[in-house]
Amino acid sequence: MKRAHCAQLFFAVVALVAAVALPGAGVAQPAAPGQGEAQLKALVEQAKKEPDTVNGSMTRVLLSTNELIRQGTDMFNKTYGLRKSFNIVEGTDNIFTNQMVASLDIGAKPKLAFYTTNASEMQMFVSGGYVDYVKDWEQILAEVNPRVKSGEVKPAQISRAGFAGYAFAHSNRLKGVGYNTKLASPDNLPRTYAEIADPKYKGQYAIEPWTSHWDALAFTYYPDNLDKFLDVLNGVGKGAYVVAQSHSLLPRMAQGEFKFMTMNAEVMADFVNKNPGAPLDYYFMNDITLLETTMMFVPKNGPAPATGLLWVMFLTRPDVQALRWADAPNVMYGDQPFDKAMKDKLNGKNVWDWQMNDETTAYWK
Prior knowledge:
alpha/beta, 16 helices, 10 strands, disordered C terminus
């Protein structure tokens, strides 16, 4: 693949596309009156003929408790005059999508009516033929989501290029840096990932065992100089105080055991929200901020396609999105206070998403 000037070109695209919906994004045009009404009515009628108990996979941070799932289900049924009961299966998202792929590959039907995945993997399901295109999806979505119908939110902010009409976005995960506000500030901490390897930070930070943000860094800045990138990783690894998941390390960082750590920003936002007064905050690096998007979709030949599609679209509505907590931010079209706070921190940063990069999309194909 040609990767020359990848970062420069990509960030120019993101500045235009990033309907990560940062402040200043263009205003969408309202849907024409009457469009989508017939399609939505037909979808509801089809859903009435499908089983009332529907199994599906959904990232639990979106509706994080059984009570919130019940609330969302009640809102869904009241809106469409249905009597559905959603059974959200427990487990890792890719276990269920792997089972879906295996079933469809042998000509069997997938077991679940809807699935969850990352945007980085969605393209494989589209190109592999595991999900069908939703005809008239923009018109149907406008009838389901009042913010889309009013023009406040663009359909492309919910179902993006590359899988528009195949999958729908609901929340994000973002790689950032958490720190103890009593011990440090962004002014005296690394502002690029490469700077973490500087020996002056040795023993002052923790890192998580995930590789996704390091992968993105390599693809963007070191595609033709991986030896230098490996030197950076070597320095970061040698200088780390500890390697562990942020959930277990946040209380220790709050107590001053170390100054900062690479982590998912939403984990920090949620921790501070639940522990007011904790001396913790987060920031995003200047070189790259990896954004991962949680997508939901209806599989090909699924057991309840109409119900599944209605549910996946319904979860984008503002009243359902309001049930989210801070550990499920939506920087694409979310309007909760923690969404807006995260968008403010993202302003001016180099937001990088696997699916937003044309060359990476070609790679996944």
